[in-house]
Structures are given as structure tokens and as C-alpha cells.
């Protein structure tokens, strides 16, 4: 099939590349000419395992193309994906300006029947707005072609996006016509070879499915973080409680790891947006609001433990931070707990020595830009040189089984604050460490 993907961000680039991998002819479009030039030269704007190899391969084979010229490629396409950003507006709702601007461009360019797919995470009812915007442009031009608007939310995990796309748990498609449903089914058939993972439904339910999935996962995390905080108070161990409840397959083991709060591009934004969508429909989403509040507080739990140990004033103290990215396997720092924790420590006068395998540039140039008293180092042990404690914030594999003797040698004090409960199995207290974790006092 001939496919156009508008937006070469995380979702657009992964989707476009994976469609091309399955033999489709894909053109990825972006208004950012620098980005497109880089992509043409094989330079990717994001780090995602396996993506670069797949991009290079499909560019070489002629299946994958990049351009800034939507008008040139659209008339020929059978399906166009909208995968532009929906940043959080000031009031917490998703800002639709980019989605609707793209819809307008589509209306200005199409000549024959096309399927327009909303891939971006958009509030319920957006497909109707996209449809109306395109129709308006067609009317202005006096063009009478039919077109379909489809909702096809993505469920990609950063760090595992290629795998999630190539072997999805499910493909949710909201459609209003048999024609569009058949075409979408054909497009996704190669991704659902083992069994049918294609779930067709009405458009609004598909739009809502995305928010419900992310809100459910965020709820599991906030629930467990709250249980962990209570465990600390009552003398229980959240790690044991996690195993105890996870063994019930109605609950399951996944997404019940207590930690320093969820971050990333999806959960914080989507939970907020869902709350807003409910509000706009005169419903007060109490549970969703609590999920958000618990998470905001959770991001500071580790900082609070540090303050409890070293005092309110952290002047003269240095902390070695392991991990800046919001989770392992990515250089993404959006809403990362590290941002909040580091800012809190620096505000109290502390010095930071930070190491992350991938996210240092992001931190320096964007998320922690301009903040003094942070030194970025090139190795995990360097971050600990003469530091008062190790603070682990992202559970990268290289932090999982470190050389504890080396940690002790480098640190001024053998103290570890473990925001991801990575070391509770190592009996490190017996090795002479003072150990602070989440969910066990
Ligand atoms: C998520 C969804 O998983 C994906 O389906 C959706 O499309 C986009 O949002 P992602 O943001 O890449 O993907 O990250 P994910 O791996 O789901 O983790 C989100 C956050 O939750 C991370 O900050 C992680 O550290 C935290 N988390 C996860 C916990 O704190 N505890 C857990 O048990 C699981």
C-alpha cells in the first residue's frame, strides 16, 4: 500500500518505518526541514533500539522516504496517518492545533478517496473535528471526493517500540465504514499473523481506549506507590506485598513495581487530559485525579528520604545520581522523576554528579538546562567520587548488579537511596551500606 505518515516524532517514525518493513511504500512527512534532511542522511532524532537499522534498511530498499512536501505525496496515497504531537495545553487538555492544521492540509491536497488515520493520542471526539476540517477544505475547493477518518491509537512502549509495533498485543481501530475497516484490516494483517489481534469498534470507543489503557496502568502504579508508602509506616515490605498480590492473576505482576513515580510522554499527559475530558463533560474524575496527585507526591519521596537523613539544608553535600531518563532503554526525560528530585536537591544547596547511559545530552540541553551545581560524568562510578550517597533513579541494566566494593570505595559514606528497589535482594546492609528503598522503612 502507499502510505503517508505526517509527523516524524516518536510515534510517526516508528509506525512509518514498521509499515515500510512490511513492504509498504511509506513516505514520512514533517514540516521540520532539518529533521527531514537528517533522516535522509540516516540520522535519527530519537534513540530507540532497532529503529536506526530498520530505517537505513528500508531507505536503501526504496520502501521508506522522507519529505517536507505533503502536497506532492498525498494525492497518490491510500492511507495517511496523522502522527503529530498533541502537547499538553495550559489547562491540562490536549492541544489539537497541530492535528487540525494537518487535517486542513490534507483537505487542501487530496483528489481521490483516502483514509485519514488519527494515530496521535487525541481527546474523544477529535475524529469528528478532523473530518469537519477536511470537509470544509474540500468544500472550499469544490472537490467532492469521499474520505474516511479512522482512529488507530498506538500502544508503543519507548525502548520496546519496534517490538510492540511488529508484534502488537492488539490493534485497535475505530471506523465508521466497511471500506475503511477492510483497508485497515489488510494493512495490519501481516502484523497479526499468529492470531487475530485486530479489534474494530466505533471511533469514539477507540479514542477512549487509549486513555483508558494508560489511565489503568498509571492507576496500578499509583496504587502500588500508595501501598508502598503505607508499608513503610506499618513496618511491612512492599516488595513482598507486590509478590503476594501479583500472584493473583486477576491482579498480575506487571505495573505494580513501586518506585519514584511514573514519567514519560504518555502517562502524565494522558491522565491529565482524561481528567480534563471528563470535566468538559461535567464529570468529576475522582480516581484519576487521585492517581495524578499520588504520582506528583511520589516523585519527591526519594528527595524527602534524603532530607530526612541529611537535613533540610543540603549545602556541602554531593549526591551521585544514577539515571536521568524516565525509564531504561530511552534518552527521553519527559516528566522524569530525576528532574524533580535533582531540582529539589539543588534548591536545598546540594551538588549533583549525574550519570545516565543515554539521557545526558537531553538533561544538559533541555530538562536541567541552566541549573548550576550539576556535573555530568561519563561513567557510573565517576558519579560517586567523593559523593555523600548514591541515588538510583532509573533502573538501567548496567546499574542492576554493580560492584558494591567499588561503590564503597568511591563514596564518602556507604549510603544508597534506591528509587527503583534494585538492590533489596543483595543483602547490601550486610555489606555495610545504609540502604533506603521505596516501601520498606
Ligand atoms: C506507556 C504505555 O506503556 C504505552 O502502552 C503507551 O502507548 C505510552 O505510555 P511508556 O511511556 O514508554 O509507555 O513507558 P512504560 O514502560 O509504560 O512506563 C511508564 C512509567 O511507569 C515509567 O516512568 C516507569 O518507570 C513507570 N513504572 C512502570 C513504574 O513506576 N512501575 C511499574 O510497575 C511500571
TrEMBL record:
UniProt KW Electron transport keyword: no
Molecular function terms from GO: NAD binding; UDP-glucose 6-dehydrogenase activity
EC number per UniProt: 1.1.1.22
What's its job? Catalyzes the conversion of UDP-glucose into UDP-glucuronate, one of the precursors of teichuronic acid.
Question: Which residues constitute the catalytic centre?
Answer: 266
Output the lineage of the source organism: Bacteria, Pseudomonadati, Bacteroidota, Flavobacteriia, Flavobacteriales
Q: What is the official name of this protein in its record? A: UDP-glucose 6-dehydrogenase
**Where does this protein hold substrate?**
155-158, 210, 255-259, 263, 327
